[in-house]
Amino acid sequence: MHAPLSDHPAAWLGHELACREDWRQSWSDDELAAIREVARHMPGTRVRDSSASDREAAVHLLRAGAAAERMGRIQHSLEHGSGAVWLQGLPADEFSLPQLEWIFWALASLVGTPVSQSAAGERVFHVRDERFGEQDA
């Protein structure tokens, strides 16, 4: 017999999750060094304009570094834990937009298989708070 859904770690409301610590994580210095290595070695182009070999190289660089183990734990947490992870401490202001895309690409590739998110075949999107009000809904 299955446990009640309400006992599962992925059964939560936003205010409940906000009070829990099991979904919050922070990068270690070694993991950040591995991420910086990816940014340093990737081309200055955006991921969407890159070759398959560049995308594979980014993942290979990260897989060989300290961040790979963290991403494995995150994958497990997403599939068997709370289903959400708040990963803090990436100093985004140190990187250019293309470098941030490469970092995201490599990290996401260690968690799952990136697939097209649009009819144009884009796999990386930028989400920004554009401060739209209710009148814009």
Structure write-up:
- By secondary structure, the protein is mainly α.
- It has one domain (22-126).
- Helices cover 44% and strands 4% of the residues.
- The chain has helices spanning 14-19, 29-41, 52-63, 67-80, 97-111, and strands at residues 24-26, 86-88.
- It has a two-stranded parallel sheet.
- α2 (29-41) runs antiparallel to α3, α2 crosses α5 (97-111) and α4 crosses α5 (97-111).
- It is globular.
- It starts with 13 loop residues before the first helix and ends in a 26-residue tail after the last helix.
- The mean pLDDT is 84.
- List how many beta strands DSSP finds: 2
Distance between the termini: 44 Å
Per DSSP, the total helix count is 5
* Whole-number total of structural domains: 1
Helix content: 40-55%
- Biggest β-sheet strands, sense, barrel: 2 strands, parallel
- Percent strand equals under 5%
Computed Rg: 17 Å
Low-confidence stretches: none
Helix-and-strand structural type: mainly alpha
Feature tags:
4% strand; 5 helices; 137 residues; two-stranded parallel ribbon; 44% helix
